[in-house]
Amino acid sequence: MSNMIDPLVARIGARVRDERDRRRWTLAQLAEASGVSRAMIHRIERGESSPTAVVLGKLSGAFRISVSALMALAEGTAEHPADERDDSAGANTGAMAEWRDPATGYSRRQISGPRFPADIAEVRLPAGARIPYPAETFAFVRQIVWVLDGRLTFHEGDAVHALEAGQRLELGAPAACAFVNDSTEECRYAVIRVRSEAP
């Protein structure tokens, strides 16, 4: 077994620690806010454990930012989306890292970086996978889900949306959501989120 730390996992851990430090939260406070154990958060922050998509959703919900925002910040150089932006052409043109959920095989590539005003991600959801997110993950965010290949069943609160390739869904008010692939083929979709201002 290798002791090498995946660079993206390490950056995600560093971003989780940075978001916690910005709020001056202890591990216990983040654990209480997210429902993720202190031990797990500690391992994630040290880059010793790759968080699952569900755990990332819980942590993002506690921070009241989207998973896409957390991933974009982990891959970028800006300290926070509110930092000054470098609007020069050609910024952030490097290869896009792919993150894989160790529990389900769900994978995502963050397309946009922290300087872009929208979070754009490409997601591959294996057959049979279900990824739930708490409502807090969608606070202050407008979001569109666009299915590129396959079929996606999207649960938005009590509503269930069956989406085929080429179809899109614009989400409403924040609600607990789940991305579900109940087909026998992989589903590939894009998530586009535009941040809005907190009240």
Which features would summarize this protein structure in a list?
199 residues, alpha+beta, 434 Repressor (Amino-terminal Domain), Jelly Rolls, 2 domains, four-stranded antiparallel sheet, 28% strand, globular
Write the layout of secondary structure elements.
Elements (H helix, E strand, L loop, with lengths): L6 H16 L4 H8 L3 H8 L7 H11 L3 H9 L22 E3 L6 E4 L7 E8 L4 E4 L7 E9 L1 E6 L2 E6 L3 E3 L6 E4 L6 E9 L4
Antiparallel strand pairs: 1-2, 2-3, 3-10, 4-9, 5-8, 5-10, 6-7, 6-9
Helix pairs in contact: 1-3, 1-5
Quote the average pLDDT. Answer: 83
Q: What is the distance, rounded to the nearest whole angstrom, between the alpha carbons of the first and last residues?
A: 48 Å
Strand fraction: 25-35%
Count every helix, treating DSSP H or I runs of 4 or more residues as helices: 5
CATH topology of the largest domain: Jelly Rolls
**How many whole angstroms does the radius of gyration measure?**
16 Å
Largest sheet report: 6 strands, antiparallel
Number of strands: 10
- In the residues, how many domains can be counted? 2
The CATH homologous superfamily of the largest domain is called Jelly Rolls
Q: Determine the structural class based on helices, strands and strand pairing.
A: alpha+beta
CATH class of the largest domain, named Mainly Beta
Reported CATH architecture of the largest domain: Sandwich
Read across the widest sheet, the strand sequence of neighbours is 1-2-3-10-5-8
Which residues sit in consecutive blocks of at least 5 with pLDDT less than 50? 77-92
User: Given the C-alpha coordinates, what overall shape results?
Assistant: globular
Helical proportion? 25-40%
User: What is the helix/strand order?
Assistant: HHHHHEEEEEEEEEE
